[in-house]
Design brief:
Layout (H helix, E strand, L loop, with lengths): L7 H17 L4 H8 L3 H8 L8 H9 L29
Helix pairs in contact: 2-3
Length: 93
Amino acid sequence: MPARGLKRPTLTRLLNRLKQLRQAHRLTQEAFAERAGISYKYYQQVEAGRKPDLRLSTLERLAAAYGIEVHELLAPALPRTRVKSRSRESRVR
């Protein structure tokens, strides 16, 4: 039977990156979920690692909320986003 969901190291990297980006933009989980067009409770479960079987469409929504591509969510360095933070300029380094 094929494995489902992301492999643990990849999932851990993705979850850490999502939290880093959200914090860099000074967003609450609720505010980011609204920006991404997903429910707050669902995003809360994603960031907590309780949703390891993420669909590509969900990853696309998460990346698009920051104006980046899906692959940038797993890049070694924090990507430069193309959206405005709550209290900073539009590019986060």
